[in-house]
């Protein structure tokens, strides 16, 4: 790959760009298969010199230099918006004050070694650039100019950036799409979840200007999947990760309702269910999971759902209103659905094989406290039993019969009993898959086949935190990071995955946050009061803390995540 840099700046911008601290903006020539192609970088809403329009600029004195100690952060008001002011190693930095993911106040987060970690969901931002360095979320933070005059700290910022509180990184565009053969692409991404989208976006951010095609069985563009169980009446456009125009602007093609049936790695061809074939140069498999279905008598009756799409979630809410709901499985999905439906349904019952919800994940004490919280919100539990039959009336579910003999009334049934990796189509491919169906990858997200990568819920990978033990971490944050690392390694950057798993669950307006990987923990050390739902739980293996969970104890989980990251 030859990369040549030329400067092409419109006359009126030239003088401004020459004053810019970041040097000169430049389209690149990227040699692909021996042919030089031009592309242009774009950035919204703030470019390297964000102050083209003087009316859009605000400058304000925000504090005295001695008001902040090293390692401190402060939210400051500039009149038309707020900024986060940070002092580290004697230097001041200013950037957006809200996490672009869900708007958490970053002043309540954790400052550590040149970056701020969000207190809610663990996203991390570089304090010098505002760039997002760990996830969830797609956008970076706007960065503002800081100057010191007569012992006072001034911030100069664009009003637009103060209002939007987010910045999309520079991105390349594809060159002359009209020249392409429809049935071949440079990069093919199977799956349009967080891993697939992050891979496509990172490729464009890194200047990749060839064709990128994503394909998905879903009918929608990539959306915020955790909201399917946490905010069940959200419509697809409300939870879209990027608007349709974004994909058009950056030439990321998305083929919806397209299922890949087989992959021929020798000839680098993906074969779709409808017979269509697409050649690729690099391949990412990010197909995620398929929910497990019930195997009992009557499993084919109507109004029994796995929450797989926004339509499923919306339909369940509609059917559950003032009716009887049975949730099978006290999984994250099952419990979030149960919590969401309590205010809408006449009754909500949860059926679970274990004796306590989340026992394997959070331990018995935390699990019991969560169960108690649900019971005080009218949720009934039927533990240590499973479903033996679904009875119907006019084709629709009417009763759920348990192995214990108990019969529950049910107008709608939601199944959350776990999932299996969606990798069946790879069985004859030669790609290395383990006994549970997970695709095995290394720290660079590479499979055993050169040029074939895999990411997200369908993979096992070596986790540095647990001495490179091969693990499966089916969480939203991890899928983002997998996608980013994949893209960097498609471009031969040689980047290894090194992140601390971070997840959250939300029920009855309360969140449990969790960082680390506690699989196989042998003790739980609790501080605070579990019964009052204000606690932090440390999960240990031998003498080492391997994970942490908390409720109403922010930002402890983000603090521990930074400790784990530092080793």
UniProtKB/TrEMBL annotation:
Q: What is its main location?
A: mitochondrion
Q: Where in the cell is it found?
A: Mitochondrion
Pfam families assigned: Pyr_redox_2, Reductase_C, Rieske
Where is it found, in Gene Ontology cellular component terms?
mitochondrion
Sorted alphabetically, which PROSITE patterns does this protein's record hold?
Answer: RIESKE
Key word Heme present in the record?
Answer: no
Q: From the UniProt record, which GO molecular function terms apply?
A: 2 iron, 2 sulfur cluster binding; metal ion binding; oxidoreductase activity, acting on NAD(P)H
For biological process, the GO terms are: execution phase of apoptosis
Q: Does the keyword Iron-sulfur apply?
A: yes
All copies of the Rieske domain together span 60-155
What keywords are annotated for this sequence in UniProt? 2Fe-2S, Apoptosis, Electron transport, FAD, Flavoprotein, Iron, Iron-sulfur, Metal-binding, Mitochondrion, Oxidoreductase, Transport
Q: Which PANTHER family match?
A: APOPTOSIS-INDUCING FACTOR 1, APOPTOSIS-INDUCING FACTOR 3
Q: Which family does it belong to?
A: Belongs to the FAD-dependent oxidoreductase family.
Function in brief = Induces apoptosis through a caspase dependent pathway. Reduces mitochondrial membrane potential.
Q: What is this protein called?
A: Apoptosis-inducing factor 3
């Amino acid at each position: 790959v030859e990369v040549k840099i030329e400067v092409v700046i419109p006359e009126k911008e030239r003088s401004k760009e020459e004053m810019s601290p970041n040097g000169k903006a430049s389209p690149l020539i990227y040699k692909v298969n021996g042919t030089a192609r031009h592309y242009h970088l774009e950035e919204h809403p703030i470019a390297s010199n964000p102050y083209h329009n003087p009316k859009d600029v605000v400058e304000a004195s925000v504090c005295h230099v001695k008001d902040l100690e090293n390692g401190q952060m402060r939210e400051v008001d500039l009149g038309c918006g707020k900024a986060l002011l940070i002092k580290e190693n004697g230097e001041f930095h200013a950037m957006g004050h809200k996490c672009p993911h869900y708007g958490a106040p970053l002043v309540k987060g954790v400052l550590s070694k040149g970056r701020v970690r969000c207190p809610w969901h663990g996203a991390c931002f570089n304090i010098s650039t505002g760039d997002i360095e760990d996830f969830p979320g797609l956008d970076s933070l706007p960065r503002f100019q800081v100057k010191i005059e007569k012992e006072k700290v001034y911030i100069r910022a664009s009003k637009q950036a103060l209002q939007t509180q987010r910045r999309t990184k520079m991105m390349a565009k594809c060159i002359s799409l009209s020249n392409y053969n429809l049935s071949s692409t440079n990069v093919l991404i199977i799956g349009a979840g967080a891993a697939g989208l992050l891979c496509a976006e990172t490729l464009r951010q890194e200047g990749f200007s060839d064709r990128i095609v994503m394909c998905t069985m879903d009918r929608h563009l990539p959306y915020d999947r955790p909201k399917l169980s946490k905010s069940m009446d959200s419509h697809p456009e409300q939870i879209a990760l990027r608007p349709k125009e974004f994909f058009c602007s950056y030439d990321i093609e998305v083929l919806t309702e397209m299922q890949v049936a087989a992959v021929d790695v020798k000839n680098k061809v993906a074969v779709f269910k409808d017979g269509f074939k697409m050649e690729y140069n690099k391949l990412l498999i990010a197909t995620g999971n398929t929910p497990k279905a019930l195997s009992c008598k009557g499993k084919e009756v109507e109004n029994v759902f796995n929450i797989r799409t926004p339509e499923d979630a919306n339909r369940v809410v509609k059917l559950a209103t003032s009716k009887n709901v049975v949730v099978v499985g006290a999984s994250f999905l099952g419990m979030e659905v149960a919590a969401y439906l309590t205010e809408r349904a006449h009754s909500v019952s949860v059926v679970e094989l274990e004796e306590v919800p989340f026992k394997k994940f959070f331990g018995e004490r935390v699990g019991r406290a969560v169960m108690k919280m649900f019971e005080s919100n009218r949720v009934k539990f039927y533990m240590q039993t499973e479903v033996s039959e679904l009875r119907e009336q006019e084709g629709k579910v009417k009763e759920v019969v348990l192995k214990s003999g108990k019969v529950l009334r049910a107008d709608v049934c939601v199944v959350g009993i776990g999932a299996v990796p969606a990798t069946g189509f790879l069985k004859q491919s030669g790609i290395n898959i383990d006994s549970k169906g997970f695709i095995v990858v290394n720290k660079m997200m590479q499979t055993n086949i050169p040029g074939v990568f895999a990411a997200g819920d369908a993979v096992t990978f070596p986790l540095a935190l647990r001495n490179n033990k091969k693990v499966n971490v089916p969480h939203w944050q991890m899928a983002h990071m997998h996608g980013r690392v994949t893209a960097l390694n498609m471009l031969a950057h040689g980047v290894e995955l090194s992140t601390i798993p971070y997840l959250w669950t939300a029920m009855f307006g309360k969140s449990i946050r969790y960082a680390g990987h506690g699989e196989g923990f042998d003790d739980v050390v609790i501080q605070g009061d579990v019964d009052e739902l204000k606690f932090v739980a440390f999960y240990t293996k031998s003498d080492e803390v391997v994970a942490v969970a908390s409720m109403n104890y922010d930002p402890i989980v983000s603090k521990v995540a930074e400790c784990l990251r530092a080793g």
